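Record type: ASSEMBLY
Status: queued
Input:
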Amino acid sequence: MTADPAIDLRGVSKRYLTRGGEVEAVSSLSLAIRAGEFVAVIGPSGCGKSTLLKMVAGIETPTAGTITVEGGTPDQARRRRLFGVVFQDPVLLPWRTLEGNVSLPLEIVGSRRPERARSARELIELVGLAGFEASLPAQLSGGMKQRAAIARALILNPSILLLDEPFGALDEYTRNQLNLELLRIWSQSRVTALLITHSIQEAVLLADRVVVLTPRPARVAMEVDVTLPRPRQLAQLRTRECFELVGRVSAALYDRLEREAGRERGEPAAALAPGHLDSR
Amino acid sequence: MTHLPSFRHWARRVAAVLGVLVAWQVAAQLADGRARAVPPPTAILQTLAANWDLFVGDLQYTLLEAAAGFLIAVVIAVGLALVFIRSRPAELGLYNIAVAMHSIPFIAIVPILVIWLGNGYSPKIAVAVLASFFPILVNTTRGLRAVDEQTTHLLRVLDASWWQVLTKVRWPTALPYLLTAFKVGAPSAVLGATIGEWIGSQTGLGYRILSAMFNFDPDLLWATMVVSALAALAGFLLFDLLERLTVGRWVAEAR
Ligand SMILES: Nc1ncnc2c1ncn2[C@@H]1O[C@H](COP(=O)(O)OP(=O)(O)O)[C@@H](O)[C@H]1O
Ligand SMILES: [Mg+2]
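Status: finished
Output:
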C-alpha cells in the first residue's frame, strides 16, 4: 500500500486572533490517513480537535503547513462534495420532516424530486429509521436525530466521513448502539473516516488507529494501532487485548496530567511517565 | 404559547376588564359631571353607537393608510435586512440612518411631510411607514442571523450558495422573528397613520381626535380613542393568529 494518503496534514498550525490576543489551537501537527481507514482522534477538551476537523473540511484555513485531501486542497475537496459531516448536535431543520432533512444535500446539488425521495428513503432505512419519514425532528429522540444526521451525511456518497463527537451528547447505551450501527455502515461503504471523540472506548471499538493529541495547542502525542480483528463486536471490549489498547491510549492521554500531579507530590517526573512523550 | 388558553384563563381576563369598567362607571357617576373630561363607559358606548357611520368612514380611511404604510415598511425593512446580512459596511452605514429616522418625533415630521407630499394619502402613509419599519428591520436582521454555528458549518461543507442558504435556512429561521416584528409593527402603523392625519385632513381617526378636542367633546374623543385602540389591537391579533397557525407549531416544539 504505497498509494497517496486520502488526507495528509503536514506541519499544520492554526492561530486564532481573539480580543484577548492570539490563541494557538493547533501546532505543527502532521498526520496521514489512508483511503478507507478509520482514524479516531482523542484529546483533552478545548485542545483543538474541532479546529483540526474544520481545517480538513475546508471551512477553516491553517495559518501554517499544508493539508492535502484526495490530491487537492481541502477547499477543492469541499467543492467536489467529498465530505459528509456529523456534529455533536444533529442540526436538523425543525420545520422539515425527517425525509426533508435527510434529502437537504440532494436539494443543494440540484437533484430531482423523485430521485431525492428514493435516496432519502434508502438512507433512512439504512440508519434504521424507516417509518419515521414524515416525522418532525421535535418528535424524534436524541439517538434518532443523530441517526438522521448520519443518513444526511451519507446521502451524497461522500468518500470521507468527518465526525465531530457525534455521540457525545447521548447516553452510554444509545451511544454503543449507534457505534455498532456506524461500524456496520462503515464496513459496507468503506469510506475514509475521521472521528473525533473523547471516549477512549469508542475510539478503540471503532478505529483502525487512535491518534492522541496533546492539550492545546494540539499536536500528535501518540498513535495507537488498534489490532482488534474486524468485524468488531461489543464483546471485544471485554477482551484482554482491548484492555491493553485502552490502557495505552489512556496513558498517552493522561500523561501530562499524571506528571503534573506527580510534581506536586514532589516526585521526579521521569519515575512516573516514559520520556518518549512530548510534554512541552 | 401554542396551546389554546384555558377557559379559566379567559374568564380571569374578562373579569379583570369588566372590573375596571365597573369601577370606572361608578367613579364617573359619583363625580356626577364634575369630571366631564372622563365620561362613564356607558356614555362612551352611546356616543360610539350614535356616530357609528362616522367611525366606519374614518376607519376605512385610516386603515387603508395604515395597511399601505405597513406593506411599504415590510418591503423596505426586509429588503434592507437582506442588504445588511450581505454586506457589513452597508449595515454599519445604513443602520445609524435608520436609528436616526426612528428617533425623529413623528409629530414634528408631519408638517414637513405635508409640505412635501400634499394633503392626500401620501403623508399619512409615510408616517405609518416611519412608525412601523424600524422594529421590522431590527427583528428581521436578527432572525436572518439566528442560524447557529454548526448549521452554518454544515451548509459550508455542502457548498450551498448564498441564495440556497437564504431560502432553505435563513428565511425559515427568520420567520418567527418576522411575525413578532409584524405584531409590533402593525399597531404602530395604525398609530402612525392616525398621527399623520393630525394635519391637513378632513377625515380619519386622527382628524376625528383633533376635531373632538377642539370642540371640547370628551365623549367623542374617548369613543374615537376606543376605535383607534381596537384598530391597533386588530393589527396585533391578525399576526398573532397567523403566528399560531404557522411557525408557532414547530418553534415551540423545537427547543
Ligand atoms: N473561531 C474561533 N475563534 C477564536 N478562538 C477559537 C475559535 N474556534 C476555536 N477557538 C479556540 O481554539 C481552541 C480549540 O478549540 P476547538 O478546536 O473547538 O477545541 P476542541 O474541539 O478540541 O474542544 C479553544 O481554546 C477555542 O477557544
Ligand atoms: Mg470540539
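Annotation: Chain B has a mean pLDDT of 89.
Annotation: Residues 43-254 of chain B form a domain with the MetI-like fold fold (CATH 1.10.3720.10).
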